[in-house]
Amino acid sequence: MPDFAHERLHHPGLVAGVDEAGRGPLAGPVVAAAVILRQEDCPDGLNDSKQLTAARRAVLEGEIKARALCWGIGVASVEEIDEINILWATMLAMTRAVEALSKDCAHVLVDGNRCPKWRWASTAVVEGDAKCLSIAAASILAKEARDRMMIEAAAVHPHYGWESNKGYGSPMHLAALREHGPTPLHRRSFAPVAQLVLL
C-alpha cells in the first residue's frame, strides 16, 4: 500500500503528488490532478485508482477534496493531443494541475518515468500511484474528473458507449466508430481513428 516515504524524503516544504487519467483512450481529453495532502489528516484507503471500485473512488474523492491542504485539476483537450501528441499533452495537463493548486509546493512527485519541463523541483516515481499517498490521491481525482467528462459526453454522442468504456477502444466503441465515424471528441492522431478518417 502507498505511504508517505517519498513525501517525507523531500521535506521541508509542501510536496504535491501528480497523476493523469486518459492517455490511452481514442476519445476525450487527458486529465491530470495535483494534490498536497495533510500528513496528519489523510483519508484511509488511498490507493492506485485502478485498484479501487467506482463506489470507493467516489467516496475517497470527496474525502480528498475535503481534507487535503489543496488540490488542482488540469486538462489538455483533444485538439491539443492531436497537435502536440499525447505525451506532451499529458505533461501540459500535469503542469496545469500544479498551477491550479492554491498553495505553491517545494517539490512534485510525478507518476511515471519522466517529469514535465516546469519550474518545480520534481521526481518521477514509476508506479507512484501504488507507492506514494499523494500520487494515489491525485490518481483518484484525475480518474473521477475524467470519468464524469466522458459520461457527460456520452449523452451528446450516445452510440459509442462512453458511459462505460470512457473512450477506450472497447469492441462496442470500435464497432460504433466504424458505423458512425469519428466525433469531434475523437483523437485523430490515434491510429484506429486516423485509419477511418482516411477512408
From TrEMBL:
<protein>
    <recommendedName>
        <fullName>Ribonuclease HII</fullName>
        <ecNumber>3.1.26.4</ecNumber>
    </recommendedName>
</protein>
<keyword id="KW-0255">Endonuclease</keyword>
<feature type="binding site">
    <location>
        <position position="111"/>
    </location>
    <ligand>
        <name>a divalent metal cation</name>
    </ligand>
</feature>
<dbReference type="InterPro" id="IPR024567">
    <property type="entry name" value="RNase_HII/HIII_dom"/>
</dbReference>
<keyword id="KW-0963">Cytoplasm</keyword>
<keyword id="KW-0378">Hydrolase</keyword>
<keyword id="KW-0464">Manganese</keyword>
<comment type="similarity">
    <text>Belongs to the RNase HII family.</text>
</comment>
<comment type="function">
    <text>Endonuclease that specifically degrades the RNA of RNA-DNA hybrids.</text>
</comment>
<dbReference type="GO" id="GO:0004523">
    <property type="term" value="F:RNA-DNA hybrid ribonuclease activity"/>
</dbReference>
<feature type="binding site">
    <location>
        <position position="19"/>
    </location>
    <ligand>
        <name>a divalent metal cation</name>
    </ligand>
</feature>
<dbReference type="InterPro" id="IPR001352">
    <property type="entry name" value="RNase_HII/HIII"/>
</dbReference>
<feature type="binding site">
    <location>
        <position position="20"/>
    </location>
    <ligand>
        <name>a divalent metal cation</name>
    </ligand>
</feature>
<keyword id="KW-0479">Metal-binding</keyword>
<dbReference type="InterPro" id="IPR012337">
    <property type="entry name" value="RNaseH-like_sf"/>
</dbReference>
<dbReference type="InterPro" id="IPR022898">
    <property type="entry name" value="RNase_HII"/>
</dbReference>
<keyword id="KW-0540">Nuclease</keyword>
<feature type="domain" description="RNase H type-2">
    <location>
        <begin position="13"/>
        <end position="199"/>
    </location>
</feature>
<dbReference type="InterPro" id="IPR036397">
    <property type="entry name" value="RNaseH_sf"/>
</dbReference>
<dbReference type="Pfam" id="PF01351">
    <property type="entry name" value="RNase_HII"/>
</dbReference>
